[in-house]
Amino acid sequence: MKGEIMLKFSRYAGIDMGNKTIKIVQLEKYKNKIRIKNILSIPNRSQNPFYSKEALSENLNAVFDLIKDHLRKQKITIGIPNDRVLYKKIELPKMRPGELKQAILWEKRELLAQLEGEYVVDYEVIETHANSYEILMAASLKGEVMEYVNIAEKFGLALEAIDIYPLSIARVFKSSFAEHNLVVVDIGASRTEITLFDCGKVDFTYSVPIGGNAMTKLIAKFLSLDEFDAESIKINPGNYQSEVKECLAPLIHHLTLQIIRCIKHFQQRKGEEVKTAVFTGGGGKLLGLRDYFFNETRIEVLLADEIDFPYIEIDPILKSAFDKMEFSCALGYALRGAF
């Protein structure tokens, strides 16, 4: 219309393929402003979506069919589950761009030679020092990667990138913890991701096969309930607080030991303390977990929903629905395109 200035927005979407639900965050970017415009949470139709090509294909087809109309004309980043990726962190001396590319090529060949099966390898320079580069390499089965690409194309969606978990979660939290070391504990339905950060940079990540589903099963068995009712009590214990704490105590203890082992590994290598732990994911809200971890470690504990994201605006109609604990990973994937 004459006299109007048309604002050109870039639109991005991040998809977090969880074993229980698929989370989607949609962003708009105008100049340097980023706003969350929409969020979606869709039940995962497959009981075991990531351990066979057939199940993965079935699940991706179902998901993309549901969301295709929401994601037209958006640049989409989707994440591969962390336990389906192999990582290697390397350090290379400072060199010219062409030489660096060639050096990384040799590192990729060396990594592929150590793996059985057909893999694809990608990398990101996570830190540039005066005399060296820190590089995170990631390898995933080629067949699984191509399944994401082919099914997205089938539904006419613009797949901008296939991303990895530690870089996603780094985009969300690194600006808030750029000056000290951090552990992020992301408790999902079937596993917990433990990621250590060295002043905002990914140091290493570790996947533990413990998650919210295991907690629900324990509550169901302890209280002689079906899993639907047990899930409700896990989320809102009400009058069952003491019973929930009692039945989950061994699992919380085991999970805490796994986190402590990762922290000690970081401290032994770096000679530095971890100052803060951030709990995220649906399981991060578990009754008693925060207090138990603090009592065992004396490390400051924050929940993701207590952290401000100063560079991100949230559409006013979404503020009450946007749960940082649930959507932090999908947000990180969406931010890959926006940054």
TrEMBL record:
Family matches, as InterPro entries: ATPase_NBD, FtsA/MreB, PilM
Name of the protein in its database record: Type IV pilus assembly protein PilM
Species of provenance: Caldanaerovirga acetigignens
Taxonomic lineage of the native organism: Bacteria, Bacillati, Bacillota, Clostridia, Thermosediminibacterales
